[in-house]
């Protein structure tokens, strides 16, 4: 084999073998994350939570649904990653300009032997697809697609970590804090979500490598040149190290995090009258009211109550009394209290979403059972 090889017959194939093996490992660890996330989602599927849009309390959701939301994004990325792995095209032995001239001459013109040799390489890689017509190097757009797949996986994970950090700042969750760990060298009370911060940092590193590989995509001269090498030597291994580091950090958070249900419930109780505004509006519309008029009435009462609470002019939230007294809103105090009392109704379809997410994850764990045995490595 060596006698008929150009340097790219060696390096491109070795690099692609490393890439495909790394992608398979990333896939298994991603499924492991989804498996642990699905367990959390089912475990917390009925815990009511103040959900936020624009980081402002919006409507109730459940903790499990929030976790499944990030899981859903990771699932989408996993499908893309899996499709890339199952259809990843290898270069094989193609010679200096992709015509296999050297191999054909070396094997005395026997093209069938050259074909058998190429099939043996494909079998060694465990890949179903080989590139047919190419130049000295395989297209660097494949490298870009590879790292973009890692970035897409990273996106859902990074969103999860960002929300854990926000929730930790509100005292709703801890990502885990081991004996001897220090949150701040100056402030002993602090328990910073440092591993989640690290997860977000890895996401930015991956996007940086993605930009590097996008720069060499579509930039090959004729049958090929190696100006891409200086970029690929940094970006490809760096991307996989960053991705693996992020996955390991996420596995650590998922194994150590803790939710404070008492604080979560207290926050729901605080914001629930405001978060029920949509239901007040819908119930009014069911009675034949004009949407714009009722919307304005509810908004006025909400804004006044909220302002007075912040200025501590109100000892207790009297929003429900205001709603019931406003003649523009066709709800009496009994109806308003009934709406707030039936808290299970606020979860709506959230518990079902957790269950459906878990069932989708189960399909992947059945296909890759080894993923259920993966646990986080020690953080050094």
Architecture blueprint of SSEs:
Elements: H1 7-43, E1 48-53, E2 56-62, H2 63-86, E3 89-90, H3 101-106, H4 111-125, E4 129-130, H5 141-169, E5 173-174, H6 194-216, H7 229-256, E6 258-259, H8 261-275, H9 277-286, H10 291-310, H11 319-325, H12 333-341, H13 350-367
Parallel strand pairs: 3-4
Antiparallel strand pairs: 1-2, 5-6
Helix pairs in contact: 1-2, 1-7, 1-13, 2-5, 2-13, 5-6, 5-7, 6-7, 9-10, 11-12
Describe this structure in words.
The chain has 380 residues and is mainly alpha-helical. Helices cover 63% and strands 6% of the residues. The protein has helices spanning 7-43, 63-86, 101-106, 111-125, 141-169, 194-216, 229-256, 261-275, 277-286, 291-310, 319-325, 333-341, 350-367; strands spanning 48-53, 56-62, 89-90, 129-130, 173-174, 258-259. A two-stranded antiparallel sheet has the order 1-2. A two-stranded parallel sheet has the order 3-4. It has a two-stranded antiparallel sheet with strand order 5-6. It is elongated and about 95 Å long.
What radius of gyration results from the CA coordinates? 28 Å
Shape: elongated
Structural class: mainly alpha
Mean pLDDT: 90
Q: Number of helix segments?
A: 13
Query: Helix proportion of residues, in percent?
Result: 55-70%
**C-alpha end-to-end distance:** 42 Å
Summarize the structure.
This protein is mainly α. The chain has helices at 7-43, 63-86, 101-106, 111-125, 141-169, 194-216, 229-256, 261-275, 277-286, 291-310, 319-325, 333-341, 350-367; strands at 48-53, 56-62, 89-90, 129-130, 173-174, 258-259.
